[in-house]
Design goal:
The protein is α/β, with parallel strands linked by helices. It has 2 domains: 200 residues, Up-down Bundle (ABC transporter transmembrane region fold); 220 residues, 3-Layer(aba) Sandwich (Rossmann fold), CATH 3.40.50.300. The chain is 55% helix and 12% strand. It contains 16 helices and 12 strands. Strand 4 and strand 5 form a beta hairpin. Helix 4 runs antiparallel to helix 5, helix 11 crosses helix 13 and helix 13 packs parallel to helix 14.
Length: 495
């Protein structure tokens, strides 16, 4: 995160502000130096013979300087990312840092260490610039000496005022030439920012946003989900996180997805929304830039999937659907409910498509109408960044209201009640049972209790499907993995 913030703040600022200024200074210096050399050459033509020698000296010094200064500039830019990352982590966990003994001193030490790294590299960069300045000034003084010496030799044929003009121009040329060399060097150094931003522009891109092939306007109309031998990994070259998964979710069916930590439960959600792609599919292989370059987008819709399988919703392979078209037709209540800075209305209806009546109705069905009504402004109440002026449970209920407004046929709950109290959990489960009974619901469960009323239970273990039956049938089999999970959670005594 720190690297991204650095490149989209410091580097972009350099490109937008510093580069135009430095280029303007560069052309100004070139014009002044050119005019000055012309004036000196006019009065003392002998000086022209020394111009190539002096130019080579200036260029040699500059090139010698650039080798170190570019590396130092790059190191300076890189060292800012850990500090930005540290700032983000500190702000996000400031309450925990203050409450935990010894953690405050540790974060202060880390901040000091990262700051010292930046300061040390900045000082090294400045010392490098002083090295350049000393040598340019010495070479400039030598240039003035040569111009003065030639003027004295030509005193018999030159007017006194012309000699004075030559010397004054020579003195000015020294200052401008020194600034010119520094400007040329600075232009090359700040191009490091262009190089760093260009690196991000070369990163592999996601799949197309919009659907190329025809898609029914009411898709998905039923909400039938089919996983066919589906496998996926987080990045090309890593191990598979889900392996040869095959199961079918019928329309309006509720399926609870359970398993131990790392079993691949949340990975199914990422796969359904195409945050990750099927293994060896075009877009999975395109995470390697060399592959994306050598294999243009020609076989995306060819129907081939390598050995990564596929996911179909109402008979449509989701790999042939644009990301925006796919994600807009699914609803999710995530484990960490997200709210954005703005009003409650903006968070419920960001595209201003619904009336306030619809919003209040959704809040009522999500059991949050009374609380929002008590706030100053109601729907116009300002939500702070990340919704910090709402509790985790209230944020989950707002996300639930948002899902109700979407009216999609598929709802995914990614451990949505893992961080909320039991009362809020009961409210969410009650609303889901009442309001989503005609929709397909996938519930990734942290508490076994939340999926006991599901039509079917999908049990994952090490990225594979171990069991897929109704809760009643699985609990009858004492050797089943779901039975053991329910026993550990103390749910058997409640049956």
């Amino acid at each position: 995160m720190g690297r991204i913030v650095n490149r989209f703040s410091s580097d972009i600022k350099t490109i937008d502000t510093n580069i135009p200024e430095e280029w303007n200074d560069l052309f100004t210096c070139i014009s002044i130096v050119g005019g000055t050399l012309f004036a000196i050459a006019y009065s003392t033509p002998e000086f022209l013979f020394l111009v190539p020698v002096l130019a080579l000296c200036f260029i040699w010094i500059q090139n010698y300087f650039i080798k170190s200064s570019s590396s130092l500039k790059r190191l300076l830019s890189v060292s800012k990312s850990p500090l930005f990352q540290h700032f983000s982590e500190t702000l996000a966990g400031v309450s925990t840092i203050r409450a935990t003994k010894g953690l405050k001193d540790r974060f202060i030490q880390q901040n000091d260490a990262r700051s010292d790294t930046i300061i040390n590299r900045y000082n090294a960069y400045n010392l490098d610039a002083r090295w350049l300045e000393i040598r340019v000034e010495v070479l400039g003084a030598f240039t003035v000496f040569i111009a003065s010496y030639l003027s004295v030799l030509s005193a018999a044929r030159l007017d006194t005022s012309l000699i004075g003009l030559t010397l004054s121009y020579a003195l000015a040329a020294v200052r401008v030439a020194s600034y010119l060399v520094r400007t040329v060097s600075e232009v090359q150094n700040i191009l490091v920012s262009v190089e760093r931003v260009d690196e991000y522009s070369q990163l592999p891109i996601e799949a197309p946003v919009e659907t190329v092939s025809w898609l029914p306007p009411n898709w998905p109309a039923e909400g039938r989900i089919v996983f066919k031998d589906y496998s996926a990994r987080y990045r090309d070259g890593l191990d598979l996180i889900v392996k040869d998964i095959s199961f079918t979710v019928e329309p309006a069916q509720s399926v609870g997805i359970v398993g131990r930590t790392g079993a691949g439960k949340s990975s199914l959600t990422l796969a359904l929304f195409r945050i990750i792609e099927a293994a060896d599919s075009y877009w999975a292989r395109a995470s390697d830039p060399s592959y994306a370059h050598d294999h243009p987008l020609t076989a995306l819709y060819s129907g081939t999937h390598g050995n990564g399988g596929s996911i179909e919703i109402d008979g449509v392979d989701i790999s042939t659907i644009g990301l925006r078209d796919l994600r807009q037709r699914l609803a999710i209540i995530p484990q960490d409910p997200t709210l954005f800075a703005g009003t409650v209305r903006d968070n419920l209806d960001p595209f201003k498509e619904l009336s306030d009546k619809d919003l209040w109705e959704a809040l009522d069905r999500a059991h949050l109408k009374a609380h929002i009504s008590s706030l100053a402004g109601g729907l116009s109440f300002e939500v702070t960044q990340n919704g910090e002026n709402f509790s985790v449970g209230q944020r989950s209920l707002i996300c639930l209201a948002r899902a109700l407004l979407r009216k999609t046929k598929i709802l995914v709950l990614d451990e949505a009640t893992a961080a909320v109290d039991v009362e809020t959990d009961d409210l969410i489960q009650k609303t889901i049972r009442e309001e989503f009974k005609d929709r397909t619901v996938l519930t990734i469960a942290h508490r076994i209790k939340t999926v006991m009323s599901s039509d079917k239970i999908l049990v994952l273990e090490k990225g594979r499907v171990q069991e897929y039956e109704s809760p009643k049938d699985l609990l009858k089999d004492k050797s089943s993995l779901f039975y053991k999970l329910a026993e550990q959670a103390g749910e058997l005594d409640k049956q």
